[in-house]
């Protein structure tokens, strides 16, 4: 729960209304000066806000600075446009939002409007409740403070028993209990309340209040799932725990393939601190680099399991609920897809290799179909999910095409030539109603999706989300007749830098930690000009020099995540002579 109060900065203003927002997850106090049309600004918990009224319309702007590790701060701003509610006197309906807060023309009109986006509940105890929640979030082990939060929520509910927003507030107070389990009184109160109130929420026409209640339902289910040891969240939290070293992570992470669901807990009852998005992303990049090292050692099966598990984690997050989780899941799947492409196009050198890899690809494809694009309300998560799914379908087609090349000597020329791996031909395109497209040349095979614009560019224009989520272009995967990175089945051996480069004249796969906008050869994994030869990644700390020094680099200390997810140390493999 967050607190954001739209109130003056110098003196405590006259409050004209207390509003619950986000279905009951946050609140605003609206002061009289704002309702008279005056401008109000301030900040809370790192969020800068500005609010003003123009006629019957209320404008609220929120700006948040994000600073991922290694990046400069990014300022994200959104302006909401609200009007007095037609259905509930005193409430405000959300009718649009703006990507450019300086522009009063909505960049996205909401049809139908989100009713009661701001819901008025004039109860002074709401401010006290959120203040206590904020204190508790800073000290979640304080059970006495939690009891005060729960008792206050129950008192507010007793005076507003039919208010769905206040009910949500009460439910989430219960979910804050430290160590919430299926044996606790709070769990039984939570389950009893959800069962009793479900029909009321389903009849509500307010999406935000329904959404927060659904989160409470899913959190309840997550507690039950964790009790049966079937929640992938618990596995991931333990796997990325600070005390887990790299060797144990590499050995145990593929077990995530055995899970079917990932349910985030609310902060109070989490037994393990959940790794952040950036920590998980860093961990998956480490896994991808290590999987390339395994390929160089001839450990193809282990590499495949590690990459597949990384992709599976992305799928689990994409299905775990919430638009942000879908975006995070799509980014994880996109990262792991780079490794799947290398497995299909470069490591697999016989039809038998493809056949051994195929069950893993089939499993991921089956799970991919559980990610429904129709359930996504907002454009960006839906398109990112669709683009990642299209990439997955391209990998399947590429595997089937290489299988035919390696067994028959030619790429598929027609749909029936994708058999036996794809007996029905190319898969359905996530964009539009047609199947994925393909064509063969003498030296290559191309498979592609028409992309978000659903226009067939014959794979001549590549879709690039940096040009805009809905930009043109096709999502393409090209399959060359000759492998770009010819990994030997029994592992690489080299006596010198020159010997290694003769075996890999096109360089090596892209380093997951390589500079994003550099040419491919500068972004790739690096080879040391030493004896013995080392192949290495820049690693999470990105402290390796550039230029000629790269080739002379000699790894000294192996990266160890127990020193911190982004800590010193190198990712490398020694190439035997």
Describe this structure in words.
By secondary structure, the chain is of the alpha+beta class. The protein folds into four domains: 15-122, no CATH class; 137-270, no CATH class; 276-480; 497-575, no CATH class. Helix content is 39%, strand content 16%. The strands form three sheets. Strands 2-1-8-7-6-5-4-3 form an eight-stranded antiparallel sheet. Strands 9-10-11 form a three-stranded antiparallel sheet. A hairpin with a 5-residue loop joins strand 12 and strand 13 (533-537). Helix 5 (185-203) packs antiparallel against helix 6 (207-227) and helix 12 runs antiparallel to helix 13 (379-408). The chain is globular and about 80 Å long.
What's a concise summary of this model?
By secondary structure, the protein is α+β, with helices and mostly antiparallel strands.
Q: What is the mean predicted local confidence, pLDDT?
A: 84
Largest sheet: 8 strands, antiparallel
If strands are numbered along the chain, what order do they take across the biggest sheet?
A: 2-1-8-7-6-5-4-3
Task: State the secondary-structure class.
Answer: alpha+beta
Gap between N and C termini: 58 Å
- What's the number of helices? 15
* Proportion of helical residues: 25-40%
Supply the key terms.
single chain; 577 residues; alpha+beta; 4 domains; 8-stranded antiparallel sheet; 3-stranded antiparallel sheet; 15 helices; disordered N terminus
Task: Explain the layout of strands and helices.
Blueprint: E1 15-21, E2 26-31, H1 32-35, E3 40-44, E4 47-54, E5 57-66, E6 74-84, E7 92-98, E8 108-120, H2 125-138, H3 143-159, H4 164-175, H5 185-203, H6 207-227, H7 232-239, H8 246-252, H9 277-296, H10 300-318, H11 323-347, H12 351-368, H13 379-408, E9 437-440, E10 444-449, E11 475-480, H14 497-503, H15 520-523, E12 526-527, E13 533-537, E14 571-575
Antiparallel strand pairs: 1-2, 1-8, 3-4, 4-5, 5-6, 6-7, 7-8, 9-10, 10-11, 12-13, 13-14
